Amino acid sequence: MTSMNDIRRSFLDYFEKNGHARVQSAPLVPHNDPTLMFVNAGMVPFKNVFTGLETRPYSTAVSSQKCVRAGGKHNDLDNVGYTARHHTFFEMLGNFSFGDYFKEQAIHHAWTLITKEWGLPADRLIATVYHTDDEAFDLWKKVAGLPESRIIRIPTKDNFWAMGDDGPCGPCSEIFFDHGDHIPGGPPGSPDEDGDRFVEIWNLVFMQFEQAAGEIVSELPKKSIDTGMGLERVAAVLQGVHDNYDTDTFKALIAASEELTKTRAEGAQQASHRVIADHLRASGFLVADGVLPANEGRGYVLRRIMRRAMRHAHLLGAKEPLMWRLVPELVSEMGSAYPELVRAQPLIEATLLQEETRFRQTLANGLKLLDEATSELSEGGTLPGAMAFKLYDTFGFPYDLTEDALRARGLTVDRAGFDASMAEQKAQARAAWKGSGEKASDELWFDLAEELGSTEFIGYSSHEGEGVVL
Ligand code: ATP
Ligand code: MG
Ligand code: MG
Ligand code: MG
Fold first, then answer.
1. Where do the Alanyl-transfer RNA synthetases family profile domain residues begin and end (predicted)?
2. Which residue, of 337, 354, 375, is where some domain finishes?
């Protein structure tokens, strides 16, 4: 079997052999970009190269970029454990051309790698194009030999990428693999495209135009290429399994949590093991890149990820903190490709142990309260927002943990009520604050506290974040 480590290496080798500079993954915390929570695509470290603000000693590059999509614009957190293809942390394999080759060569490389080097059957592959992109449509026929029936024109922004209202933009193609008709889901563009039968493995972005104030104003003088392929998704395909969680790395992580909890990743417990494996990777890599659990900003996203995994460990019956004991398995699977994990291993273990020890002190009581509060509710029911707020405030349950806990029972949470309770508590804190007597400065203090403060981070909504759609 081709391991995930082999596939990553083979991707990098292929493009290096074809003249691309091999570039290390950037850290998950973006440099020079306070508007973006985490690096969420392979192109992020190259943004300034695409816009021309920065130059590099190469015009083509290849990388395997660490990505996290668990907050801000791209949030796949709620999908984890429930779809076959979404993670909070994943690796994006990408090749890039900065004004060097364009569409034809990009399609040629993608097709050659997946069908010739890796031997994927052409008749299981589908390509989408932006509905007006006749050039790409014709190239998929000419270069890849795809029949017209398997080149799908998509009129939505799924197939049109833009860095924001200003800057480069252009149509894209997504390559899908058909896992077979035994799996529910329709082809891209169909009403049931969200199923897991046709899985998007690779996204090719053709940066072709320049935008100003949201309108295309010209063709770019130097057209560029940005691609991104999910390593875990293509590994599933190459290893002949449907589900990312059945690939070698995930199997090893899940085997470790099965062993430690003496449970099997089957039936109702399957999602728990998957969430634990996924969140272990995200937690480990985030800590290795300098993020620590906190009550705000990036640290709060990490805390939410950790606590969600810790609730699932509790569900599996773990009597002691579990997550930190899985770190050696993570390091053994991924440490050779990412030496920062090896260096940070003691810190990752200590951080997870401390967080789980703390959280376990209130977890059981919080879950008991949650059970009582929902015992009367039947499927489709809603937990009052005030109760979700109490769980947050008294028991340290991030909002989405409560949501996740209720999901399996078909219950939801009253988000508006939760927000109202949060606002009320803030107002009371303000009223109770006697302060220095200087009203203006007290107001300023509260504004600052709220801006920077201890409340839940609700995401940045800037164009930067939005731009990274790939
Ligand atoms: P999807 O439509 O399946 O959510 P996407 O179009 O949002 O994927 P892109 O932004 O195009 O994804 O990212 C490029 C590639 O990265 C995708 O083709 C996919 O292989 C992979 N990818 C994206 N999001 C995830 C995720 N949450 N977990 C694992 N792989 C992902
Ligand atoms: Mg997505
Ligand atoms: Mg997509
Ligand atoms: Mg895509």
1. 2-470
2. 375
Does any domain span residue 466?
no
Which of 4, 38, 90, 232 gets mutated to test ligand 1 (max ligand atoms within 8 A of its CB)? 90
In this structure, what DSSP letter does residue 41 have?
A: S
What is the value of pTM for the model shown?
0.90
Say how many Å lie between the first and final Cα of the chain, rounded. Answer: 30
Q: Please state the separation of Cα 297 from the chain's center in Å.
A: 17
Residues with a CB atom less than 6 Å from ligand 1: 41, 69, 76, 85-87, 90, 92, 200-203, 228-230, 232-233, 469-470
Residue 336 has pLDDT above 80, yes or no: yes
Q: Which residue has the tokens 């906190």?
A: 294
For atom 19 of ligand 1, the residue with the nearest CA is 230
The answer to ipTM > 0.90 is yes
Report yes or no on 198 lying in a domain: yes
Q: Is residue 461 part of a domain?
A: no
Going from the Cα of 87 to the center of ligand 1, the distance in angstroms, rounded, reads: 9
Average pLDDT of span 61-78: 90
* Domain end (from 242, 265, 297): 242
Residue 469 lies in a domain: no
**Can you give the residue range of the structural domain that contains 213?**
4-242
What type of residue is 353?
L
Residue 295 C-alpha to ligand 4 middle, in angstroms? 32
CA 107 to chain CA centroid, nearest Å? 25
Q: How far away, in angstroms, is 365 Cα from ligand 4 center?
A: 42
